[in-house]
Amino acid sequence: IAAKLLESLNIRVKAYTKAIGPVEVAPDRFDLAECEKNKLYMPDAVAAAEAEQYLERKMAEKDSAGGIVECVIAGLPVGLGEPVFDKFNANLAKAICSIGAVKGFEIGEGFHAAQMAGSENNDAFVMEADGSVGKATNHAGGILGGMTDGSEVVFRAAFKPTPSIAAEQRTVNKSGEEISISIKGRHDPCIVPRAVPCEEAAAAIAVCDALLEQQRRSELL
Question: Which tens digit of pLDDT belongs to each residue from 105-127?
Fold first, then answer.
């Protein structure tokens, strides 16, 4: 329902697999059309093939892998969110971190920003062809001061490896004895591709919440 509402407002939420284990999509090979052509939903045919081989090795080792799902939200109006208690990025993080297996969340340059200088990370403001003010880059990921700035909102979520693996693991039984177990049955070697629609749905709901809150506040003024 949230996705249909956003579609009617020309707001697009698109997620895809950015990385599986150590295999990451290459920027120069990025092609969203490739997502529909491989079962890992990666926008890079070469990376998808390498990731499949990596997962086959993990399966042979009775192990699993984690990965990263990236999401881009386009078409958002300027000013969604608040500068303090209801920041757009904070509410978005809450929605994404509520998805099972998410262990990390970042917006824009994210953790990479810690390695950058201010001159590298700052987004310069420029005049667009239509006379509006825009940004030369989008290191901030579309959010400034807790509010959307009109650029694409770009964020990523890190998903942990599937914990139920066939390899032998250590645990403690109800008698307090240290024992070894191997979990039986069918288990996905990686849940990341399944998480792509979950991330899109959670993001769509968070955006709809922000839009409805903005409408409520405007009606009170």
Answer: 999 999 999 999 999 999 999 99
